[in-house]
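Data availability excerpt. The first of two example chains:
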Amino acid sequence: MDASAGLASLVRVFRQRAGLTQHDLAGLAGLSVAALRDVEQGRVSRPRASTLRRLVEALDLARTEADELVRAGSRDAGGAPSVRVGVLGPLLVTVDGVPVDPGSEAQRTLLGLLTLSPNAVVGHDSLVEAAWGTRPPSSARGSLRSRMSRMRRRLRPARAEAGDSQVLAASAGGYYLMVTGDQLDLLEFRHVVARARQEREAGELTDACALFGQAAELWRGEPLADVAALRTHPGVVALSRERQAVVVEYADVAAGLGRHEEVLPHLRQVAGSDPLHEAAHAALMIALAGCGQHDAAGEVFHRLRRRLVEELGTDPGPELVGAYQRVLQHDIAREPVPVNARHQLPPGTTDFVGRSAELRTLHESLVRGTSSATAVPICAIQGTAGVGKTQLAIRFAHQLLGTGEYAEQQLWVDLRGRSEEPSADPAVVLASFLGMLGVPPDQVPAGVEERAVLFRDRLHGRKALVLLDNAESEEQIAPLLPASPTSLVLVTSRRALALDGAFTLALDVFSLAEGWELLAAMLGPERLAGAPAAAEWAVELCGRLPLAVAAAARHLQALPGRDVSELPGRLISARDQFGADIPLTRAVRTVFAQSYRALNADARRLFRLLALHPGPKFTVECAAVLADLSPAHVQPLLDQLVDEHLAVAVARNRYQLRGLLAAFSRCLTERVDSELTRNAAAARLRPAADPRRERSGAGRG
């Protein structure tokens, strides 16, 4: 429906509802019958703003109906508004898509005040007081007219014609801004919020949450933040409170769905703008706890309680106390972990290099594995964080598809075994897989075991490839395994998994040549040719870890004028500041931290203290001395480190923290352990590592 047809239909419907004839309405609106007939028959596409206002008043329309009528009658021929005004933040005006300065501070104040009451007359006295204060000069009325005239010209589109409706118009008692939700973000905000509340009342919480989020995203800061004269105006204060109420309502809906993270930034802004707003702070506490930040949620409560006592002499209200009790009791709903399962595999990276021996080994293992007539072949790729397990698995899978193998069906899921988010629930993954296999949602069984049975049935006899990426445990994987030997399962994990009948490939860091090849692929071989020794040194400084080498290359990509010879120095500086939030180490530190958090408290402490060992390799006895534990107690802790690929068993009774893991360990011990603890551990180690004591048989290391 075009603009004129929409307007014609609305006017006719509203007139008939009011029981008016065309002659009646024309008389009430001060229009000729011919003019009204032209509107109702769609011959007028853009009536004057004054005509629209007269129709609104004569039909006695509610605010939402008036906005709808104005919206229908104010679109230009292309359907897009040529004038837009933004008040949900600093005052923003665009005409024909180009930012326009409304003019002097007085003109900005006048326009800002009009936007607070869209499509309604603002009286002369109110406008004069806002722009010139309670004691205006005698010339204020005349100045008001001239400033409004200037502003009207600034707001007039270049393609406007005589007779077109104007955004800024005069009336007998003042001025008004005739705008739609497409032209004023405040109206758009209120329109979207109204839709969100309708969806919430209808029980459609997911749609309501999306609409509340859309409304919240319209805000760019405090309303009219750059119009100083209106900062304390009742309309601006009321608009700020309106935003606060909507964000709290949004948070309530999001909390019911367990979608705390998406509303968290808006709650922080609202709570920051009103440090005594108990409802906003209560919602902020719930959202923080829902994101796993229970300590931060508790700190919000204690900080606000102190402020309430100091500034108002009162205690927190029941809403805030209730939220705090829920935080303490962990009574916060969390959103089910979203998973990704597709018919097609994820695309491989164009920067994939090396791994020829590993790919050959995987292909050979598959030939051996498919000789079984009953068991599904499983290939498990294990290794430390950032070593390239996922990319190797994807490359191997695409190579198989390229030969026509397993082309019938491919399923992939990130199980988030070591992630900032909770690991994927096998029941949720199976529901997604079954949907991909054509099972209607209402036919997906409720229990995980029943879903697993149906999953195996749907894949029976099919040439299917299932890639289970970033697995956490054997228990997580077991329900996701097909039973047919015609299928293939690829598993990647940072943990050492015990999977019956599986071929396991322990993926190590790059060779020096492979690290060089990745730098050349990302930076170009000509850029490395001028400093080959520096490039090799950079690969070694990255511990040959693919993720770290790629991060170093991306760092240099962002600095096209810099020479490769500078890279080692930058890497040395980054390694020495491994705990700092700098791009060169951020990605590596993040993935290492995910594996570190999987350790129990004793294993974490041991990993940190191993940074104090003077050499790269250590024995069980040296580890025991550092941790002040018996070797029998330390051995299972070292096994944890090896299982999480945070340490490597290099020989019987000897272990090593390789490459950047040693820098990560040092960063942690300096951040977590006190100087007294570190000195005591080092002091215990010195006698154990003394060569004279070793020769006399007294050494433990």
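And the second chain:
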Amino acid sequence: MEKDRVAPIPPALKGIRAIVHIDLDAFYCQVEQNRLELDSNLAVCVQQWQGLIAVNYPARALGIKRHATVSDALQLAREKNAPIRFVHVATYAPGETEPKHHESERVSSATHKVSLEPYRRASKKIFQVFAKFTSHIQKASVDEGYLDLTENANRLIAEDLAAGKIDGAEEEEGPIVEWDDFSILVSNKPQPLVTPPNPSSDSEPSPVTPVDPLPAQPSALASTSESSDLPTTNPPYDEISSPPPHPRTPSPYPEAPNTRTVSRGWGDLQLCYAAKIAKQIRTAVWDELHYTCSAGISHNKMLSKLCSGLNKPNKQTVLRETLVTQFMRELPFTKIRMLGGKLGHEVEEQLSVEKAGDLWKFPLAHLQKLFGVQMGLWLHDIVRGVSTEEVKEVTKTKSFMSAKSLRPPVKDMSEYRHWFGILAAELYVRLQDDWEDNGRWPKTMVISLRTPHLDKSRSHPFPPRSNTFTADTLVHRAMDLLKQEDHNKIFPCFRLSMQVTGLQGEKGTGDITKWMKSAEQGDSARGVLPAPTTVVRPSLPPAKPKGLMAFFSSATDARPAMSPSGDVDRNDDGTAPSDTEAGSAVAEEILESMREDETDDDDDGGSGAGTGEGGSDAVDVDALIPEPRSVSTYVCDNCGETVPETSRGEHTDWHFAVRLSHEERKSSVLRGGLSQSSPGAMGTRGKRKSLGNRGTQGGTIPKRAKGEERPTGTLKQFFGTGAK
């Protein structure tokens, strides 16, 4: 039988992985270019109010950067006599139930609410294309994801081995690998630029360029990012090639290679096959949706993420195992995910280092003494390109939030009703989409408001699906909750949010409109409200610890001052999340989706650009960036809390520590004879023992009682005495 002729997976391939990171090129701009059918040579900027949240590559060639103002970008375009198009993000206007694209002159933050829904919907279609090739997908944000193509590549290798198509498989050096030119290889030598051949001419056979199996000199890393301080072998974007073609032109991916390179080894062979699949995926995204994307291919997630940004736009880069050491030696260590923010600053301050290779001189024991056992081990490995993070399907977010920073502030009840109407319309649309896709329904509704006198959240049970329900229902209930506050304390209101939490239900299809019928019943749809839950959050302490101990700070430092979810439990059964849930299912998701540490100019939307479902929920930058260049808060999708940007580092570091602790517990023996991490030190939200017992072996953490204040996890609980 045909199946019997398929050779088994070679032993040399067992235990190594082929990971691909795919990142859309200037995603928000591409969505708007496709919608408006704009020429891709045209400079396009996506604006929110008077600030730019996305800039395409022709605009970057003019010197325009994300977060610039519209007037500054217009001036740069005029100086170079270049045409430019500004497109405002979709907004909800008063009385609208769907986000629409309004003329920027008619959009005002005083009357409109930003919506990122068009980008969430485009993202969903892109990941549906990914899913045609593999089920091993981790959505990192709205415009990027990780794909584990190990099984796909190994299966194809086995088939070609059985067919005798792989040369040198029996030789000690390993199989001969011939690389196609749609991939750029990170090398210890300058790489030739790949230029698509002229289809009207008869090209000679492409020359074969051998690739040295081992590095002989520091690698030259390719980069086109304006803000990148990596050494570059490629000229700027406008000197490499023309911008990506018009959305309706043929595929931009060249089929005929212009030059070829060869190497040897089973690991290289696996990456070569993964690169071919990555090219197929990128081509499929273009053919079906007309988006270009870049990709990085390597043996782990961290390296593939770094590679995807080296040769943007519309290219893919491969980092082979034999060049990882040289690659990491010259890499600025702040380019590594999790080391670009506060943690990276602490490492730089403690050790006076700039490049990843500078950290190699510090022994593992020294790093663990400074940063704790787990963080020290992670840091020791990551700067050498070693990472064992798996590609995991992220948990779907259990909450949706719509928030608005109010300028001018709300000063009367009619203005409250106006803004609750816009927030409710946005949540209604998202609930429709989620019910159709996932068959889920929320358990709780929460409103939060911030005034000079209040920083408060109130929650209420969400109406069941069988009840008549419209966006008006949310408005009525929100107003009822608001009226229970002291009238003198709710004005002026500077920030308002509405959230639904506890989304649950079996996967299925259906039309939510059968539940969301017309709300002509008025007050009868609202019913009698049970007593709401009120949560008043304590204010942040006036001062924070300095130095490294800022990571090991008190609970109020590591958690936000205000929680939009009140004291509502996130689990479906009403209990607090367990340490395993926090450590494995969600902390990994937050780690992948956070944008603060990333320096890739191609990220759209800054820290507010998330995924919509899985990863960090895409909270509208309207709530995060009330004015250009000013980011006040962000919403953590893991815990649904609104976090001041000044506290974001501690908050994301806490989630990162949860993941590290969970991975540590899964290993029975640590390298170097280190003891296992303490299972009692997990970052559960449940009631904890006293500080002296938090890190004890085998310690149990009882669940907190209903209504009990939610405690805070800090990094100190994870790294024990090693952080002293």
